[in-house]
Amino acid sequence: MEPALTSLAWELEAPFVDVWKIEQQHIDHYKHVNNVAYVSQLEKLAWKHSNKLGLSMQDYKEFDRGMVIQQHVLNYHFAAHLGDEIACATWIASCDNKFRLSRAFQFISLKTLKTVFSAQTQFVCVSLSKGSPKRMPAKFIEIYGQAAKLSNPSSKVSSSKVRGSKVNSKADDSERD
User: 122-158, pLDDT tens digit by residue?
Assistant: First the structure.
């Protein structure tokens, strides 16, 4: 990560950052970035981060597991426009080392140095072949659990607590591996 990107006002420690250049296909009829473009960027950024941590789609297939979205909370703070460059950060905010993890996102305009967008996404581990909730394999727990500790090193909240989650899931009652 470029040194200038590390000095931005990130909400959590040790962000994974990628720069997003706003192009015409990201612009809507209001002449700012379309909300669908933000959601698409969330997915791209999350996969880049997971790959950097050491998990790929091949791993997901090998373990017959996937982390699927249960809930998105999206916050649009300021408009971004054609030609803007946005520093897009993500973190594993928490991991219960069983079924759930939470990912945080923060997008900062490199022109204004203001947060233009933030989001939280709750994920549940499922069997790819059956679609039902399943416990995370050891590799997921090791990688995502460690990433959660890095983003909140001074936090007294256990990584088993999903920050801000009010989500009711049947994952706790599902079949155990």
Answer: 999 999 999 999 999 999 999 999 999 998 776 543 3
Q: Give the number of C-alpha atoms closer than 13 A to the C-alpha of residue 171, restricted to the C-beta side.
A: 24
For 29-52, write each residue's pLDDT tens digit: 999 999 999 999 999 999 999 999
CA nearest to 90, candidates 121, 131, 130, 58: 121
Entry pTM: 0.85
Report which DSSP code applies to 108.
E
CA angle 145–133–95, rounded 5-degree value: 15
CA distance 23 to 69: 27
Calculate the dihedral angle through the C-alpha atoms of 67, 72, 170, 134, rounding to the nearest 10 degrees. 0
The CA-atom distances, in angstroms, between 8 and each of 88, 116, 136, 149 are 11, 13, 33, 20
End-to-end CA separation in angstroms for the chain: 38
